[in-house]
Amino acid sequence: MLTANMEGVNNMHDNFLRGMMLAGNDAPCFGYRPIDLDGNAGPYEWVSYRHVNDTASAIGSGLSKLGIKTKDCVGIFSANCLEWSYVEHATYVYNFISVPMYDTLGIDAVKHMATETEMSAVAVAPGKLPAFVNMWKDLPLVKVVVVFGPVPDGIGAEIPNGPLIISLDDLILLGNNNGLAPLPATPATPNDTCTICYTSGTTGTPKGAVLTHMCFLSSANAVEKRISHGLIPIMDSTDIFFSILPLAHCLERSVHAILTGRGVPIGFNQGDIRKIVDDIGELKPTIMVGVPRIFNRIHDQVWAQVKAKGGVASALFNYAYGVKKSNLKLNNNQHWLWDRLVFKAVRQKLGGRLRLVISGSAPISGDVLDFMRIALSTTVLEGYGLTESAGPCGVSLSTDMKPGNVGCTLGTCVYKLVSVPEMGYSIDDKPHPRGEIYIKGNNIFSQYYKRPDLTAEAKTTDGWLITGDIGMFDAQGNLAIIDRKKNMFKLSQGEYITPERIEVIYTDSALVDQAYIHGDSLQNELVAIVVPNEEFLRRNVAETPDLAHWAEHERFDDICQSKDVIEHFVGFISEWGRSHGLKGFEIPKNVYLEYSPFTIENEILTPTLKIKRQAAKNKYIDILNHLYDELHYKLTKN
Question: Could you tell me the EC number(s) of this protein (predicted)?
């Protein structure tokens, strides 16, 4: 199953030991920025592979001494941090099953995960401990709570029969006391459950995807093959990876597995998205995996600066950009002059050393992908995957710079397309077959935990994962994601709408930070809730004579509520949609400008920054109805 250079790697702990062998016991493994009493971050400090292995072994030993058994579930309720990874690797060493829990999920979702998995132990960030106090009485099976910090005095005293609460430091001391606890008699096999990753729940209660060690090892093995064929740059201990996405996200977990197995050091961000640029400047990474929203922001900010400079500088940037964009057709994004003279400043903002950038989690526009390749002058790839495929199952080729495709499979699985006649997609379409993407292979989840009904909806009886994504195979055999079957709805005139595709098109504009497209079967038009970018909206209205007086208005909410600004924005929405290939019925006819962003905290976004459609509908239902009332009034008036 695995190639020769991964022989003997049967589980995730073996994979880590392989990386330690390649890099060296004392090579840096994980890096973090210590925060002083004033909240200022210092330079990155590193812990070695040996230290991570010893610490993880001690944690696993301590849990074992406290009664946690092989294949018991161990939850991790925290943002990304060094301690998160220690506990993760402890589960590998002692063959526990990790259950990552997004630190931003509501307590009901966390309670659901802990109850459904019959969790025996949970590791908790200090700030999350009070929330656990409120639900301990509902979690009688939790024996141990491990705190990433000191245990507050008196915590849990009102629940005398509750779990043991212990700090991570004390657990490590316990694990090392009188030697480590015996390792499992039978180490984890490739087919043993490694983790239960709960989906982020865009439509309802999170469901747990059961992923084996093989799911992650197959991705690591596939990357080995890609590297050997020169389709992905070599990655080793001389690289540095910048960790942005939450570790509870399968993509980040899979990337960590791939990189630690190759000896690549990983630097964590501070946990504050506003400080990511500062972290990048300090770390100077060579590898970065992010989501389109991050790259969209970089794209918008750079172009805004170019426009603001004007004159010769702006003209030179645009000329150089045009030259390099033409060269992309020849699969070349290097230029001996413009990379030094024009685009060096952009590269320096991202540390100046990036040589591999991958966008994943959601579709990225071709314009932004072209921009990243041109401005960074490095390998920029787009990946495709799902929680149910343990993260990445395909990625574009470094030798192909044509945007709009996610390449072929990594080699962990195979794709097939299935016709969707109600949407007009068929495997017999010419010149290229189109249909719903089905995936089968070593990386596919085995089941949704304790949910055979949902498993039957997501997998065929012969093991194909039904993705809900609509794809097309191009002339080279690459897969392009062209539509979405899930969340699809029909308008009253019978036209099918896939809102996520439309939202991607609009958020590609600098004026739009976020968008929620809404419609239903009783209406024949779409409406939208749009979060505009304040900087660009003020600039836009300043350039519009009838609206210029709004540009310097102190309150952004007043600008968003101005009828004149809204009418202007509706016109922009129409023009942008038509110029980007949307049909008339796909363009929202009325818009509400929301000055407060969609966030995880206000429960509109999932932890992977996707819109919770039902939550958005519930929050804005009165406004959505009012938007339709306004449309109907205009129609009757006319």
Answer: 6.2.1.3
Reported as a single tens digit per residue, the pLDDT across 166-213 is 999 999 999 999 999 999 988 999 999 999 998 865 456 788 999 999
DSSP one-letter string for 399-433? T---SS---EE-SSEEEEEE-BGGGTB-TT-SSS-
Residue with tokens 């997501």: 458
Of 360, 338, 370, nearest to 294 (Cα)? 360
Contact 73, 210 (CB under 8 A): no
Residue type, 572: F
Q: How far is CA 229 from CA 23, 208, 398, 445, in A?
A: 22, 35, 11, 27
Residue tagged 């390449």 (tokens)? 407
Q: What is the pTM of this model?
A: 0.84
Q: By three-state DSSP, how is residue 568 classified?
A: helix
Distance CA 409, CA 397 (A): 10
Other beta carbons within 10 Å of 35: 12
Tokens of 357: 């950038």
Burial group, residue 325, by CB count within 10 angstroms (0-12, 13-18, 19+): middle
Q: Two tokens at 178?
A: 């009188």
Question: At residue 164, what are phi and psi to the nearest 5 degrees?
Answer: -70, 130
Cα separation, 59 vs 98, in Å, equals 13
Residue intervals of the chain classified under CATH 3.30.300.30 are: 489-637
How many CB atoms within 10 Å of residue 122?
A: 27
Architecture of domain 489-637: 2-Layer Sandwich (3.30)
Domain with CATH 3.40.50.12780 in the chain: 291-484
At 4 the pLDDT is: 37
Share of the chain above pLDDT 70, in %: 96
Q: How far apart are CA 354 and CA 532, in angstroms?
A: 30
Determine the distance from the C-alpha atom of residue 116 to the mean position of all C-alpha atoms in its chain, rounded to a whole number: 24
CA trace torsion 333, 334, 335, 337 (10° rounding):
130
CATH number, span 8-211 = 3.40.50.980
For domain 291-484, the question of CATH label 3.30.1380.20 is answered with no
Q: Cα(371)–Cα(294) distance, rounded to whole angstroms?
A: 13
Q: Which of 66, 82, 97 is nearest to 165 (CA)?
A: 66
The pLDDT of residue 106: 67
Distances (CA, A) of 124 to 37, 103, 245, 419: 22, 9, 19, 46
| DSSP letter (8 states) at residue 580 | T
Residue 66: closest CA among 202, 166, 214, 149: 166
Q: How many CB atoms lie within 10 A of CB 337?
A: 9
Q: Report the relative pairing of strands 527-532 and 590-593 from DSSP bridges.
A: parallel
Alpha helices in 27-106 (DSSP H): 49-65, 82-93
Give me 194's structure tokens: 């490694």
Q: What confidence tens digit (pLDDT) does each residue in 269-294 have? A: 988 777 888 999 999 999 999 888 78
Beta bridge partners of 496: 490
Helix (H, G, I), strand (E, B) or coil at 591: strand
Whole-angstrom distance, CA of residue 56 vs CA of residue 176: 11
182 token code pair: 């015996």
- Does residue 104 surpass a pLDDT of 60? yes
- Name, in order, each residue with C-beta under 8 angstroms of 456's C-beta and a sequence gap of 6 or more: none
More confident residue, 500 or 594: 594
